[in-house]
Design goal:
two-stranded antiparallel ribbon; 55 residues; alpha+beta; 2 strands
Length: 55
């Protein structure tokens, strides 16, 4: 998956993965130092547990 930084256009790298399914949930740009917000993904069992607890 090629995702580019909205600030400088450099390709982002995975900064953090989901503990359950290992999908990337946070990215970082090594050129300008920007980090994305953590992304909640609903297709993962771990994500469903978070939603059901907070609902």
């Amino acid at each position: 998956m090629n995702i580019s930084c909205r600030t400088c256009g450099t390709e982002l790298e995975t900064n953090q993965e989901c503990e359950a399914c290992h999908e990337s949930i946070e990215f970082v740009c090594h050129s300008c130092g920007k980090t994305t917000e953590k992304r909640i993904h609903f297709d993962c069992t771990y994500g469903k547990k978070i939603i059901s607890v907070s609902a």
